Amino acid sequence: MSLKDLLEYRRSVRIYDSEKPIDADKVKDCLEQATLAPNSSNLQLWEFIHITDKNYKDAITDACLGQTAASTADQWVVFVTRQDLHRTRAQFVLNFEKGNIDRNSPAARKAKRIAVRETYYGKLMPFLYSRCFRLMGVFRWLVVTVMGWFRPVVREVTETHMRGVAHKSCALAAQTFMLAMAEKGYDTCPMEGFDSRRVKRLLNLPNSAKINMIISCGIRKGNEGIWGERCRVPFEEVYKRV
Ligand SMILES: Cc1cc2nc3c(=O)[nH]c(=O)nc-3n(C[C@H](O)[C@H](O)[C@H](O)COP(=O)(O)O)c2cc1C
Predict the structure, then answer these.
(1) How many domains does the chain have?
(2) Is 0.85 surpassed by the pTM of this model?
(3) Which of 64, 76, 175, 189 has most ligand 1 atoms within 8 Å of CB, for mutation?
(4) What is the pLDDT of residues 132-165, one digit of tens each?
(5) Nearest CA residue ID for atom 9, ligand 1
(6) What is the domain extent for residue 212?
(7) Which ligand 1 atom minimizes the distance to the CA of 69?
């Protein structure tokens, strides 16, 4: 299928065919492809909990408010943001980038490029992602507001903003996953209709982990699998050219 065919094929499926199970290894492969999604500062503050054990079915359906998109699915993937892992992920990326620069940069530029990455991942990222009862965010907001009097700055730096940053990147991974699944002829339904506290308890997730969305997986049940024709507002309403 071409990309356009995949985009047309992918629909939110609400009823899956119980006679058609899917291969967990192929789903895992799609999750690996999802990690190729672009993400903020390449920190990859995400985690994917792939549920294949049918013993979870009733509890996950209950946590997803009884939706048939959850109850009829063969497997489920919980997309989680892990902002709390920012230091270890930043260190991982910094270590990789040092080697990357060493392997691929001209000798004269290596030291400068490494110093820039050290500042970015060693100082700026920890500063941006640190949390302390919203106080760190207020402090960052004050700093960028003053800087903004003199030059363009990124203003979305509060603790709430940074949580949004992690969710944006995770959602891109989720979409990449759904397209990878479509390419295998597998169906999905992204869900935000769930009780996050129950899901976290079920999966033993730490409080700092936030659930981005749950994606149910399976194969659509004929025509009843999807809710009829696709609805989109006229393109002219959302397209602005300047
Ligand atoms: C973040 C997000 C949350 C969603 N939550 C639900 C949900 O809880 N239950 C559901 O049936 N569909 C859910 N959907 C699916 C949307 O309703 C669906 O994408 C939209 O109606 C467009 O249909 P399509 O995906 O078939 O193009 C969600 C979609 C997104 C992106």
Answers:
(1) 1
(2) yes
(3) 189
(4) 999 999 999 999 999 999 999 999 999 999 999 9
(5) 191
(6) 1-225
(7) 11
